[in-house]
Amino acid sequence: RGAGVILMYGAHLLRNGSALILDRMMERRWLTHVATNGAGTIHDWEYAWLGRSTESVEQNVATGTFGAWDETGRNLHLALLAGALRGEGYGVALGRYINEDGAEFPAPGDLERAVRDEPRHPLTPARADLLQAMERHNIGAGRVEVAHRWKHASILASAFRHGVPATVHPGIGYDIISNHPMFNGAVIGRAAGLDFRLFGDSVETLDGGVVLSVGSAIMAPQVFEKSLSCVNNLRLAAGRPVVKDLTIYVVDLQDSGNWDWTQGEPPKTNPAYYLRFCKSFSRMGGTMHYVQCDNLAFIQRLWKALG
Question: Cα dist. 139→127, 216, 258, 297 in Å?
């Protein structure tokens, strides 16, 4: 019926091995949008480049080395810096970078002239950020080749390949790349801002549609409620009805607080009231179902049911 199906997921859905199933679901257009957080992109790129992604947080924090390697922070920033020159958001820029095994960068002199000659151009901030990064972090002009031998393990690469919108909704200081010498909040924020607008375009398609929130207790409910409110605001201003007939499935290992969320939210005297990821989605005007399940098992069973 043409309605959207949005998957919002946390990093463990990728780490648990769902990429190939999600690739097939996107290929069949069973998913019309995928959205993740910053951690999801870190594991996504590391699997595509290295074939693995793990460390001991406890041991490495104690030695000041948690997330302190160069490659992840450097390449995520290279992807976003290159994508910004095309007006791309976080998800598309990184998906392209993985698919195309790197990116092309202009000469610093060309960037400097563009900034000087077109100070009011929409891309001027992105050009200035790239120029500064090239000068400070030894980024040469021309082609930067980065082989991604396991790109089949990347959800963002699959989304880019199939033309499915992919968005990233990070937080400043949430992710290991915040400790990297190349870290630039403007670069991250610009890409994430573009993605929030792109996410709104997909929320616009949700009349009679479905939202799957799988393993994302914070990003998914918080981003979705703001985006839905924005879409409804614009619809009402245009004399249109708000998004309706929406079905939401929230999937996580946490129990539901022994509450039937299809009946609305519990009273404040019930501990289940404080399950934010359930409460937020239950307020979104649709029907919300909570599924206590391993996230990979849920995707596997969904694949079998749809197939």
Answer: 14, 35, 54, 42
Could you tell me whether strands 33-36 and 210-214 are parallel, antiparallel, or unpaired per DSSP bridges?
Answer: unpaired
- The residue ranking higher by pLDDT, 272 or 88, is 88
Q: Quick count: other Cβ atoms within 10 Å of Cβ 16?
A: 15
Rounded average pLDDT over 9-29: 95
Candidates 68, 65, 100, 70; CA nearest to 83 is 100
Residues paired with residue 250 on neighbouring β-strands, in sequence order: 213, 290
| Domain-located, residue 222 | yes
Considering the domain boundaries, does residue 95 fall inside one? Answer: no
Q: What percent of the chain has pLDDT over 90?
A: 86
> Whole-prediction pTM value?
0.94
Residues 6+ apart with CB under 8 A from 30: 5, 306
Tokens of 229: 């409110």
- Quote the domain boundaries for residue 165: 5-48+151-175+182-306
Pairing type for strands 210-214 and 5-9 reads parallel
